[in-house]
Amino acid sequence: MPSLNWIGKDKIENHDKEVAFRLLKKNEKLSLGKSSENLIVEGDNLEALKALMPHYAGQVKCIYIDPPYNTGNEGWVYNDKVNSPKIKEWLGKAVGPEGEDLTRHDKWLCMMYPRLKLLRDLLKKDGVIFISIDDNEHCYLKLMMDELFGPENFIESFIWKSRQGKGATSQTTAKLHEYVVTYAKDTSKLAFKTDKRFSNKDNKERLRQWGQGDSRKDRPTMYYPVFSKEFGEVFPKKPDGTDGRWRISRMSMDKLLESGSVFFEKQKDGRIEAYKTIPSGSETNTAYSSILDSEIVKTTAHGSVELKNLFGDSVFAYPKPSSLIQELLSLATFNDKKATILDSFAGSGTTAQAVLQLNKEDKGNRKFILVEIEEKIARTITSERVRRVAKDLGGDFEYVTLGDTLFESSGVINQKISFKDLASYIYFTETHTNINLKKIRENFIGEYSGQEYYLLLKDKDKNILNRASLSKLSKSKLPKIVYADKCLLDQSVLDKYRVIFKQIPYSVKTY
């Protein structure tokens, strides 16, 4: 498979592992409501994504991001300036001296790569990520996403008509569109809303995949024989004679066969096509168009009008219209109205408005997480927008900032860290799942895959694994992992009670 390389890639490929883990600190004054599952995070999105990991890894259903388009327009301070002081400082630390020699494309790729890795880890197995982009970085983004998510999980580069008019935006053409690059965490688990606006005149639906990703090599598991009494074994063959693939899994196909919903037709070229019968008068689940409907999805100008209606002025340049993000969210979360949605380039907060609008329309309870790096924007635009639209749409949020790091520079655990914070982190690094804080009792922090986990941290004099603390562990026969400062028990005693001792801080893994 072709790969993408750039100056600084070798320094950045595993940079997400080097980012210090920070705690999230709630700001009561800037929050809306006493408690909420919605979050607005102020701070560098790389550190914020790392901080979210113990709580949301594998839990986010849908991600929408609108990263810098990298047009080279240095006048657009917020969303386009890869030469901004914060980005330059970060590049200097992450890439080193050679960061001074990077082109703007190198800088953009260095900035995006570790963030996309963390976003991938936050997605659920059936999750979807949408990325707004234009021609400046579209081709590079596609190759980078193929590397991180796998080409087999590419869904579409949706085309969005972002502006009206015919005025030239370059020397040769009037650029009126942008893209929304879309990938699934795993397309085999994907549930994507289809378009029901078109009727099926033939009352049948072809079961062989067509269009993008229609070859056997694209989805090898979707190539299998289907038995027909008339034609015997039928494989998905394309009109050119090459191997295609079915649109559904073998299990789903078997269910259709059992219900008598599959029939076969011989084509003029000799191939056998399999079809699913559609009841007369029913709507067809037509594949969603790769061109977003301009009657539903508005332009950037409409996004500006939305902000002006809220603030009385144009407080943010080139905002996306909420209709764009709402349409994308409806595609990915139509079957999960309690989904968690993340936007780590939050800007003016359009994603939160789209979530609240969609919830009001279909009576959903989706949650949002917004991350905004610029303090002034986060406090005066992002959160303020949500506060204002919530008056009509309902909703609340917790406003949090990035707090202390888990580890001091010397490598020891920060003394300010609470038991629950360290327990959450340890449980996540051990199991790669999120802790259930309600199940914590005494020193027990959780059970996973037939193993119990304990943390001795609540009292400086009691952070030792000895006979007394051993007696307080559960009497179950499950193996136990115990984190503590010291262990005064012989190995034979540990073996007898199936206990593995891990010393703090040396055995605490970094994620």
Automatic annotation (TrEMBL):
GO biological process, one term: methylation
Pfam families per record: N6_N4_Mtase (PF01555)
Keywords from the UniProt entry: Methyltransferase, S-adenosyl-L-methionine, Transferase
Gene Ontology MF term list: DNA binding; N-methyltransferase activity
Residue ranges annotated for the DNA methylase N-4/N-6 domain, each copy included: 60-381
Protein name: DNA methylase N-4/N-6 domain-containing protein
Family stated for the protein in its record: Belongs to the N(4)/N(6)-methyltransferase family.
PROSITE patterns to which the protein is assigned, alphabetical: N6_MTASE
